[in-house]
C-alpha cells in the first residue's frame, strides 16, 4: 500500500500557529521552546507590550495567543478584549502568576478562552491549547462556580466583578494602588472627567458608597500594579 503525502497546504493547516505576548523575554523563550518541540505547534510571533501584541495578532492571525495577565505593570484586559473582537478566530489564553478565580474572572469576561497559572504552565499549557482549539473553555473550576453563583444571585467579589467592563476593571486596579484620577487618566490616555465617570459607575455597580470602600475593594480583590 502506497501512502501519498498530503499537499504542503494541508500540512500547513495541520500546524497550529501561536503568538506569545509577555514582557519577560526569558518566559517567552521557555514557552517557545516548549511549544516548538511539539510537532503540531509553531510559535510565529512574540512581543513584550500590549500594543505590539495586538499588532502581531492582527498581522499573523494565529490560532492561539498566549497573553500574560500583567504587561508592563498593567492588566492586559484591553488587549484581550480588543483582540478577541477583531480576530475572533484567534483563541486567547491568559497566563498569570495568580491562581485565584478573582483574577481569572475578568479575563473570562474580556473574551479569553482560557486561563492558566504560570507556576503550572509547563504541565497545563498543552492541555489548555488542545481544549480551546476544540472550541471549549479552559478555566479554573472556581470560575465556573462563580458564574453559577451569579446566576443564583450569590454575592461574592468575583461575581461582582462580572458587572464591570474591562476598562472599569483596569481603572479599579489603579484605584486599588492609590492613584488619583489625574494619574489614572494619564496612564489610560483619557481625561480626568472620564475617569471620574468610570469611578462613579464602578461604585454604583459594586454597591459601594464611598471612595474609601472602593479603594479597599480594589486592593483586596485585584492584582496590584507598580507605579
UniProtKB/TrEMBL annotation:
SUPFAM superfamilies xrefs: C-terminal effector domain of the bipartite response regulators, CheY-like
CDD domains named among the record's database cross-references: LuxR_C_like, REC_NarL-like
This protein's record includes keyword Membrane: no
Keyword terms of this UniProt record: DNA-binding, Phosphoprotein
Residues where 4-aspartylphosphate is found: 68
MF GO annotations: DNA binding
Superkingdom: Bacteria
Name of the featured protein: DNA-binding NarL/FixJ family response regulator
